[in-house]
Design brief:
7-stranded antiparallel β-sheet; alpha/beta; 8-stranded parallel β-sheet; Hypothetical Protein Yjia, Chain: A,domain 2; 336 residues; globular; Rossmann fold; 2 domains
Length: 336
């Protein structure tokens, strides 16, 4: 009797489009009797995206991370090792993979279809999220990664349509309908509220990127799982820089004994210029919060995560990291 293959989906989309929020919404409706695994890759060397899933292991969910790099690299052994570990130890009923917003999905799909995995995995729809406001920006529409993420998707979803507005959303959807090869499904949602049934859609066979060499890019990445970065001393935050894929990032980890003033953090996030993305988990008094900011727009949610405070900034150019660090330190409450 043949073993049942494990369904696997890619959830793709550019920086700040709402992939993690979408995953959270999907996982809220996960069948209670199933074990699911989520593999997350972040561009920065300090991971943030795993923090909303703290404590999820108790609910049949395991979150693994391939941090500080690009899991679309064909030679990315950490990705292959993480996937092998998940298959052998967790034996999940489904796997969801969230590549970095700057990553090309094609090499991941090639790996999943390779000889070592093709008899184990059942590749289902690749879902691509697009913020219509990004699509309306020439800088994004001409970016190879942005184009290939859309080209390689089976299910194309306009996210954040409440912020984009009806007219722009309609223009994007009309454009999407003219794409070739056509999408199996095109949708529009707010706050990543996708239908989990879309994950089961059978993929379009043999989709290819417009630029087959687009993922052969220069990297300067730290590969590995950085959930367990050392906890720094009070007053001595750990700082890690990263660059590649046309972007620069810097992340900081603060001692869990240090407490941030939430209002000062909000002011700091708004004041930061020329940073595409700011995302951080912070201890603020008795609460821990996730701040997720894209070009000045930001959201705040409460977290079960308690290990440390950590934040990552990403920009198209090198930024004055030490100045940003001093700004973060200025958001700390005085130690008593």
């Amino acid at each position: 009797m043949a073993l049942q293959k494990i369904p696997v989906n890619l959830i793709t989309g550019f920086l700040g489009v709402g992939k993690t929020t979408t995953l959270q919404n999907i996982l809220k409706r996960k069948p209670a009797d199933e074990r699911w695994a989520v593999i997350i890759n972040e561009f920065g060397a300090v991971s943030i995206d795993h923090t909303p899933f703290a404590g999820a292991d108790e609910n049949g969910l395991v979150v693994k991370e391939v941090a500080g790099g690009c899991i679309c690299c064909t030679a990315n052994l950490p990705m292959q090792m993480t996937l092998t570990l998940v298959l052998r130890q967790i034996k999940p009923h489904r796997i969801l993979i969230e590549p970095t917003g700057m990553g090309h999905p094609e090499a991941i799909l090639d790996m999943l279809r390779g000889k070592f995995l093709k008899d184990v995995l059942d590749i289902r729809a690749t879902v691509c999220l697009v913020d219509p406001r990004q699509w309306n920006n020439e800088e994004y529409r001409e970016h190879e990664t942005f184009i290939d993420q859309i080209t390689l998707s089976d299910v194309l979803i306009a996210n954040k349509v409440d912020l984009a507005g009806e007219e722009l959303t309609r223009e994007f959807l009309e454009w999407a309908k003219e794409l070739f090869p056509p999408k199996i499904l095109i949708g529009a949602v707010e706050q990543g509220d996708v239908d989990p049934n879309w994950l089961n859609i059978e993929p379009f066979p043999n989709r290819k990127a417009l630029n087959p060499h687009a993922h052969d890019h220069e990297h300067h990445h730290h590969h590995g799982d950085n959930h367990d970065l050392p906890i720094p001393e009070v007053g001595k935050p750990l700082m890690k820089e990263n660059h590649g894929l046309g972007r620069y990032s810097c992340g900081w980890v603060f001692s869990p004994d240090e407490v941030f003033d939430l209002q000062k953090l909000k002011t700091w996030v708004i004041s930061v210029k020329q940073v595409e993305r700011v995302k951080g988990a912070f201890r603020t008094g008795g609460d821990w919060v996730l701040i997720n900011a894209v070009r000045g727009e930001f959201s705040i949610e409460y977290l079960a995560y308690r290990r440390d405070s950590r934040v990552e900034c990403i920009g198209a150019n090198p930024l004055p990291w030490k100045t940003l660090e001093e700004g973060l330190k200025g958001c700390l409450l005085e130690q008593k």
